[in-house]
Amino acid sequence: PYSTNPPCYTVEDSQIHPATQLRIVLIGGRRSDGSPSGKSSIGNFILDQHVFDTSRRTAQSEARQQEVFSRQVTVVDTPGWRWGDSREETPKLDQIEIQNSVHRCPPGPHVFLLVIPISLHFSQRVKASLKQHFELFNVDVFSHTIVLFTAVAQCSDEEVEFKIRRNPVLQWILQQCGNRKHFLNISNGEDRDQVKKLLEKIETLITNNGFRHCPVDRSQGETLRKEMRDLTERASKRFDQVQKQRNKLNKLISGGLQASI
């Protein structure tokens, strides 16, 4: 469903400086069974390019940029936490990558899209989990967030509204986000009007926020990168130690077998 032209650029490679720029960060959880929330698919849908890998769980925040409806749009995909899990249950590296997402689209994102599959059941645990994970950001994320309801099967706007009316947690989430919402049916990849309306809602939010993007602390970005390097190095050392112990054990077993022959 995605077109192949024009090519998509990474943020680092792009030298295009159009008059209109939109910087979007996709956030949200994943189901308790580990299945994805669809953020990567949403990123591909918005950019009309298959630039985010949908075959695996997102492990790192990744930014891609593309011209969409005469706007230069940057989308940042992020790791998801498990809906219902406390922040302490989310791996530290995932937490750091979520925090680092705002540094992937300098000088800072205009909007966060909270991706919520309409088929998901929302409980009080999900509400607590969402509040805790939003605290990973230093800014008032709610005032820069649009709730993006998604569906992979045919679903009408009326069905979405019905689900919201029946679920107090969804109502609470919308209230925190100024009742800003949009619905994307990604089963209908040819309907680009869905994306055009979403971009218009984002522009309205930017206008209401005084054309200010979310403030980003550069020093925090440097600290996060150092934390990631340290965690990765420690994990690599642990892996090497396990491999050495395994090789040593294999040699002992192999030597014992030869001695018994």
TrEMBL record:
Alphabetical list of Pfam families matching this protein: AIG1
Superkingdom, natural source: Eukaryota
Coiled-coil residue spans: none
Keyword tags: GTP-binding, Nucleotide-binding
Gene Ontology molecular function terms on file: GTP binding
Family classification: Belongs to the TRAFAC class TrmE-Era-EngA-EngB-Septin-like GTPase superfamily. AIG1/Toc34/Toc159-like paraseptin GTPase family. IAN subfamily.
Identification of the protein by name: AIG1-type G domain-containing protein
Organism: Poecilia mexicana
Upper classification of the organism: Eukaryota, Metazoa, Chordata, Craniata, Vertebrata
